[in-house]
């Protein structure tokens, strides 16, 4: 029976040591290509479509934009296998070392050989180095391992595991013993309390707790802003009060990337946000799209949303339908249903129609908006919308 127990312990440690590198390997070679397929499909539609002139315009708009990098090149560079190589090797070495030390300590405690030799009057063999380690260090190593596996699983599940995250996990494994020992010194050595403190400190999900604090702070700030008690600037335009569909968890994750206002979101690189957060690319594009429109219309965005214009690309569709002719040129005179639509929008915004027309064309020519149209909406205004506008 003892032999079977030792065999089971050995199998357990082999699986435990192999688990972290295997999880990272599966994520990189299964999950990452699935995310890359979204970028590939977008690039094929915008830059490799049958309309060569439109593809050339899209490529030129991308080259001239100072904020958005080449989507496919950025994604491939960020998730290059060579970037995973070093942190994965470090993770494997650290996990193997941790598993060997803990396994040696456990098996020495389970083997009865030293006790049997002492009872027979023989000289007690010297203890191996792992057996001489304090329980505090062993528990700190175990806590660091648990923290590392939890981080890999959590970040893989949310599709935000990257080489930079692996370096952070490696650092956590290296710091597990010093952190565990430091926290164990804060507790009295009573009934294994120090060992528990060492394990708890090493396995403590600090990143998740930080996010909870960020969510709480963001919620309180938005509540105080809504009640009028906040001293924040009116022009700050926080994402939580301007963009639709952002949860507290999403706001906390974006704030980690220093994206808190619509200005931050409007001129960010969507591909970088995608590979760093795990959010789907179309969702990020919608946030950027709404943020660009919010920068131009300010606090009036919530009112204009009710008119069916909730983002900058809706503005571009409005311009194409009502302010440009069939050749795509700016109309010299606007009349009929087009003038009625422009006047209705000007009235909702409290602006003069001429000034509003100038504002809409400024949005239409914004470099960030141009890239969004060329890459993510390469076909322009849907035919159904054109037909409906013509019928009106």
Helix/strand layout:
Elements lengths: L1 H46 L4 H13 L6 H8 L2 H30 L2 H7 L9 H4 L2 H23 L5 H12 L1 H9 L8 H11 L2 H21 L12 H4 L5 H9 L5 H5 L3 H8 L3 H17 L3 H5 L6 H12 L12 H14 L3 H13 L1 H10 L6 H9 L1
Compressed to H and E, one letter per element, the order equals: HHHHHHHHHHHHHHHHHHHHHH
Category by helix and strand content:
mainly alpha
Please state the overall shape, judged from the principal axes of the Cα atoms: elongated
> Which radius of gyration do the C-alpha atoms yield?
30 Å
* Tally of helical segments: 22
Largest sheet report? none
Q: How much helix is in the residues?
A: over 70%
The termini sit apart by 85 Å
Number of domains: 2
Brief write-up:
This protein has helices spanning 2-47, 52-64, 71-78, 81-110, 113-119, 129-132, 135-157, 163-174, 176-184, 193-203, 206-226, 239-242, 248-256, 262-266, 270-277, 281-297, 301-305, 312-323, 336-349, 353-365, 367-376, 383-391. With 392 residues, the chain is an all-alpha fold.
Protein architecture, described:
It contains 22 helices and no strands. Helix content is 74%, strand content 0%. The longest helix has 46 residues, at 2-47. By secondary structure, it is mainly α. The protein has 2 domains: 2-32 and 70-204, no CATH class; 235-391, no CATH class.
Name its key features.
2 domains; 392 residues; mainly alpha; elongated
């Amino acid at each position: 029976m003892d032999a079977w127990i030792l065999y089971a312990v050995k199998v357990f440690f082999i699986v435990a040591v192999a688990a972290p590198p295997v999880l990272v390997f599966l994520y990189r070679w299964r999950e990452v290509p699935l995310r890359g397929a979204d970028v590939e499909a977008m690039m094929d539609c915008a830059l490799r479509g049958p309309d060569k002139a439109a593809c050339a315009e899209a490529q030129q708009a991308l080259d001239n934009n100072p904020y958005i990098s080449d989507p496919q090149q950025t994604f491939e560079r960020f998730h290059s296998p060579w970037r995973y190589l070093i942190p994965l090797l470090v993770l494997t070495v650290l996990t193997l070392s941790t598993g060997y030390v803990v396994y040696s300590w456990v098996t020495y405690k389970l083997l009865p050989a030293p006790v049997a030799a002492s009872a027979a009057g023989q000289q007690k063999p010297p203890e191996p180095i792992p057996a001489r380690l304090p329980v505090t260090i062993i528990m700190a190593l175990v806590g660091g391992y648990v923290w590392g596996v939890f981080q890999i699983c959590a970040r893989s599940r949310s599709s935000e595991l990257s080489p930079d995250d692996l370096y952070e996990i490696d650092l956590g494994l290296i710091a597990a013993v010093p952190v565990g020992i430091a926290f164990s010194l804060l507790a009295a050595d009573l009934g294994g309390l120090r060992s528990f403190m060492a394990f708890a400190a090493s396995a403590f999900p600090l990143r998740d707790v930080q996010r909870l604090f960020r969510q709480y702070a963001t919620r309180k700030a938005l509540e105080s802003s809504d009640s009028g008690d906040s001293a924040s600037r009116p022009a700050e335009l926080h994402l939580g009060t301007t963009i639709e569909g952002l949860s507290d968890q999403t706001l906390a994750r974006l704030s980690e990337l220093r994206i808190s206002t619509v200005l931050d979101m409007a001129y960010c690189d969507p591909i970088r946000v995608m590979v760093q957060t795990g959010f789907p690319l179309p969702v990020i594009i919608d946030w950027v799209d709404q943020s660009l429109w919010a920068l131009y219309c300010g606090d009036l965005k919530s009112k204009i949303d009710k008119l069916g214009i909730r983002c900058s690309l809706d503005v571009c569709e409005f311009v194409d339908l009502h302010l440009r002719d069939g050749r795509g040129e700016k109309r010299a005179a606007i009349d009929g249903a087009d003038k009625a639509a422009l006047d209705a929008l000007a009235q909702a915004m409290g602006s003069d129609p001429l000034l509003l027309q100038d504002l809409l064309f400024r949005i239409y020519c914004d470099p960030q908006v141009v890239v969004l149209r060329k890459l993510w909406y390469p076909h322009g205004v849907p035919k159904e919308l054109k037909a409906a506008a013509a019928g009106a």
